[in-house]
Amino acid sequence: MHTNDKIEQNPGTNVNEILRSIPSVEILSQSIDHCGLPKLMVNSVIRRHLDAIRSDILNGSDLSLNHQLTKDVQEKIQYLSASKTRAVINGTGVLLHTNLGRAPLSEDQSNSVFEIATSYNNLEFDILSGKRGKRGLYVESLFSQLCEAEAATIVNNCAAALVIILKELISTSRCEVIISRSELIQIGGGFRIPEILSTSGAQLREVGTTNKTSSDDYENAISEKTALILKVHQSNFSMSGFVENPTHKELVDLGHRYKIPIVMDLGSGSILNDSSSQEIRNEPTPSMLLSEGYDLVCFSGDKLLGSVQSGIIVGKQDWVQRIKKNPFFRCLRADKLTIAYLECSAETYINQSAENSIPVHQLASIPNSELETRAKKIIEQVHKCENYCFMVETDSTYGGGTLPGSKIASIGLTIENLCISKVKMQKQLLHGGDIPIVTKIENEKLIIDLRTVLDCQDQQIVESINNLIRNNKNNE
Ligand SMILES: *Cc1c(COP(=O)(O)O)cnc(C)c1O
């Protein structure tokens, strides 16, 4: 099909002729691959693209056009199509990869939520009385139980939890939030503690230094303007050496003495205090902080808890009630699917079966011998495997801004001796199979870390590696 791919300006060409040579939306649409997008979407992308070209031509800003129309439009369609949410294989070994949706969810728990999703349900309906009921009552009871808290509630994510806590606890006369300079952190993209504070109307009152903050530093900052003392888990970095911070007990005592609430943004929020992992056992738990005397603790639902995106607030009954009554709470509340899924997750923690039924913990605890068996099985099915595909030792991490520096020994696959660079191999593994495989490059090797690959995905790995080898093997 002729699409007038190039509109080249000759010296004699006038504007009208150029405009006339632009193909119609329909013709262009028929000449490209829609990449699975609805035709209306494709045509709308084309229309916008052509409109932009037309206006460039008309205002004279781009008369020397050498448009690769089909190619440009095709790229836009591919880009849009690739942004559609889909499953990928996580070969990075990062268990809570924020770019890859953090915690994968359990099939059993997803199935029970599916039933609720596709039916009407009792989200705000009291079955006993047949009247209007309270949203989230059961999930709140579960988290109160798990965290040994007077009360609990759920919002959209941990960032939202912190914002609503701040909004409720600060007032015009009491607007200052005291926080150590060592905790003015940034987490991932776009979450900076100082910015969250100012969005919530709080005045930041920084104390101490990056490496040392004492109890006196906090005490000296307390005034009649102090709304609360905020502790923030450092999350994605750790400090060692000449470092000092007051103990939780010292801070809580200070708060009680001056009648100032003490709040902790715990971030990753591990509640497994009997985990088989030493690092997870070392994490402060919400129940431990509440028993130390914190007024409120908030944490994320899709980090070490291994559940859905959500923010969990636990603590003193009065504060939690006030937060739930804040008009802003309505903007941050969790939806029915989140609530239903969190109920399932919380029950597994209460039944002490989380390590066996929460996927993040299951993946973290797969023995390497099992990964080795899978690796060997995959390699056996790879074409000329003795030349190209090998088993390697590697390290997985938790990621997602949790447990910085902690590593889990793991097993991966590496591909060598092909005639393309590792970066090109990475690209081909993303695009070459039915399902994109995200890999890592470590010590000059391209690695698919099997710890984060679900075992039902092994066959797809075989196919993608075979495609990669077929397309790029050296001449034999
Ligand atoms: C990750 C993190 C957050 C943000 O949690 P989301 O659930 O992603 O909003 C907030 N605070 C701390 C300390 C964190 O580690």
Concise summary:
With 476 residues, the chain is an alpha/beta fold. It has helices at residues 15-20, 25-30, 39-58, 69-82, 107-117, 137-146, 158-169, 193-199, 215-221, 248-258, 278-282, 286-292, 317-325, 329-332, 336-350, 354-357, 359-364, 368-380, 385-388, 422-431, 458-472, and strands at 89-90, 125-126, 131-132, 151-155, 176-180, 186-187, 191-192, 203-207, 226-232, 262-267, 296-300, 311-315, 389-396, 408-415, 437-438, 440-442, 445-449.
What would you say this structure looks like, in words?
This protein has 476 residues and is an alpha/beta fold. The chain is built from 21 helices and 17 strands. The chain has a seven-stranded mixed beta sheet, with helices on both faces. Strand 16 (440-442) and strand 17 form a beta hairpin. Helix 5 runs antiparallel to helix 15 and helix 6 packs parallel to helix 15 (336-350). The model is unreliable at 1-12 (pLDDT under 50). The protein binds pyridoxal-5'-phosphate (PLP). The site of pyridoxal-5'-phosphate has 14 residues, from helix 7 and strand 10.
Keywords:
binds pyridoxal-5'-phosphate, 17 strands, 4-stranded antiparallel beta sheet, alpha/beta, 476 residues, disordered N terminus, 7-stranded mixed beta sheet
How are the elements arranged and paired?
Elements: H1 15-20, H2 25-30, H3 39-58, H4 69-82, E1 89-90, H5 107-117, E2 125-126, E3 131-132, H6 137-146, E4 151-155, H7 158-169, E5 176-180, E6 186-187, E7 191-192, H8 193-199, E8 203-207, H9 215-221, E9 226-232, H10 248-258, E10 262-267, H11 278-282, H12 286-292, E11 296-300, E12 311-315, H13 317-325, H14 329-332, H15 336-350, H16 354-357, H17 359-364, H18 368-380, H19 385-388, E13 389-396, E14 408-415, H20 422-431, E15 437-438, E16 440-442, E17 445-449, H21 458-472
Parallel strand pairs: 1-15, 5-8, 5-9, 9-10, 10-11
Antiparallel strand pairs: 2-3, 4-12, 6-7, 11-12, 13-14, 14-17, 16-17
Helix pairs in contact: 5-15, 6-15
Bound molecules: pyridoxal-5'-phosphate (PLP).
